[in-house]
Amino acid sequence: MNADPNAPIGVFDSGIGGLTVAREIMRNLPSERIVYFGDTARLPYGNKSKETILRFSRQIVRFLKEQQVKAIVVACNTASAFAVDELREETDTPLLGVIEAGARVAAARTVNRKIGVIGTEGTVRSRIHESFLKKLDPEVTVYGKACPLFVPLVEEGWLHDPVTVEVARRYLQEMKEEQVDTLILGCTHYPLLRSTIGNIMGENVTLVNPAYETALALRAMLEEQGINRQENVQEEFPYRFFVSDLAEKFQSFANSILPYDVKMTRKIDIERY
After folding, report:
1. What is the pLDDT of residues 116-154, one digit of tens each?
2. pTM value?
3. How many domains does one find in the chain?
4. Is there a catalytic annotation at residue 187?
5. 2 within domain boundaries
């Protein structure tokens, strides 16, 4: 498929966490345009079945294709775990999940071959990181830990609150006891807690931010396919944001973490797709 290099990149997530991926794309691919969809009416995805997540993801892909995107980033670990393979088979649009890029970097960085993965219940239960990591290096041992309270704490804006620090300390104790030397932040909200997690794990543990690694993988994929946008056209709205509910709440959170002033977020009926 010969996509138009000037077409936007579609990015979707179950809500606002995927904005950390959008932020890395903005920083590392500044000439690219983005259409972002956050499924704020139906979050969280982490406690839903594979069938439900697949149905939601298919609807969102149909919406993004209507926006004529040239590539799609599944900026949700749970959807990446449960839906990416099927979506790739069903669409001719190049598609990237957030799990592969992070797993590759973790496998390359670990020295003692003990890798931790923190994420939602769904992501950790799927053991998707483990299966990727084992393909890259059969000798690694992977420790998964669900950290369900991190998402509401981030969405509450309590990034450096003592409550958040205490919760993180409890969640991460297991990882410290297992002496992991590399920790994958396996949920798109978690990079916003990076400094707290880093302080608890200590400087000898490498934190892998899949949002950043996915942006680099996206750049490589666009260049390889010859659909990267060359010129940095100045336009008023290079980034468009859509949600399935709570547009105002989404917009205020987006403006707190993005290097771009989000002027408008449109609510759409995703069930139509």
Report:
1. 999 988 889 889 999 999 999 999 999 999 999 999 999
2. 0.92
3. 2
4. yes
5. no
